[in-house]
Amino acid sequence: MDNRFATAFVIACVLSLISTIYMAASIGTDFWYEYRSPVQENSSDLNKSIWNDFASDEADEKTYSDALFRYNGTVGLWRRCITIPQNTYWYSPPERTESFDMVTKCMSFTLNEQFMEKFVEPGNHNSGIDLLRTCLCTLGSVSCYVAGIELLHQKLEPPENVSGEFGWSFCLACVSAPLQFMASALFIWAAHTNRKEYTLMKAYRVA
Questions:
Q1: SS3 192
Q2: What is the DSSP letter of 90?
Q3: What is the mean pLDDT of residues 141-170?
Q4: DSSP three-state, residue 196
Q5: How far apart are CA 82 and CA 64, in angstroms?
Q6: Do 180 and 17 meet the contact criterion of CB atoms below 8 Å apart?
Q7: How much is the pTM?
Q8: Do residues 27 and 176 lie in contact, with contact meaning Cβ atoms separated by under 8 Å?
Q9: Phi, psi (5° rounding) for residue 129?
Q10: CA-CA distance, 80 to 113, in Å (whole number)?
Q11: Measured distance CA(82)–CA(63) in Å, rounded
């Protein structure tokens, strides 16, 4: 066996293993896109109202997006999460300078939400179906995910004091894809080289 074949095979196996680990980590975590917003007042009634709307089975795209904008939301492939104050106060809340204990609460996207229709004006069901965003959001590739986020922000812009960026789960998926392509190329090259050597050896024996 040629040393080149063995080397290529080992490298391809390592790359494939790393790619699989990265992809599994990215799919299983909720940090594909992250929003950064100012600290909100610790209002018990407001927090409860926001969470009820966010967790409702009838929450539409605008409802849960507004909560994501307001409460440092993160979005994954399967869940959406917001970070809200853990403690609520029946009396006057503490001063703004006092630190709050924060807790992250998540809601899973239902199967219906994964394939739900997107509207031209998010939240306005009478504005017509946005076919481009509806089709893109049902595809599972990284490029389509990016396009879906950008198109959403064109229709529903985050507030001026809210910033957003792709999270580390998304970065892992981006790294995983080229590693898998490299591993595949090496596997194909190794198989082709090994077959060629086998053919030459067989021809030599026959001769």
A1: helix
A2: S
A3: 86
A4: helix
A5: 9
A6: no
A7: 0.70
A8: no
A9: -85, 130
A10: 11
A11: 13
Task: Supply 71's token pair.
Answer: 């409460």
Q: Which two tokens stand for residue 50?
A: 């926001």
Higher pLDDT, 147 or 166: 166
Sheet holding 79-85, edge to edge: 102-108, 79-85, 74-75, 33-36, 163-166
Q: Could you give the angle at which helices 168-206 and 3-28 cross, rounded to 10 degrees?
A: 160
Name residue, tokens 């939301």. Answer: 73
- Judge contact between 30 and 106, C-beta under 8 A: yes
Let me know: does 125 contact 63? Beta carbons within 8 Å.
no
Structure tokens at 66: 């507004």
Centroid of chain to Cα 127:
27
- Are 80 and 91 in contact, with CB atoms under 8 Å apart? no
Q: Which residues, in sequence order, are CB contacts of 134 under 8 Å at separation 6+?
A: 117, 118
Among candidate residues 166, 196, 188, 193, the one with its CA nearest the CA of residue 16: 188
Question: What is the phi-psi region of residue 123: left when phi exceeds 0, alpha when psi lies from -120 to 50, beta otherwise?
Answer: left
CB neighbour list of residue 98: distance below 8 Å, 6 or more residues apart: none
CA distance 79 to 63: 15
56-108: pLDDT as tens digits? 877 788 888 888 988 889 998 888 998 887 764 444 455 544 456 778 888 88
Contact (CB, 8 A) for 72 and 40: no
Sign of the alpha-carbon dihedral angle for 51, 53, 58, 63: negative
* CB 26 within 8 Å of CB 166: no
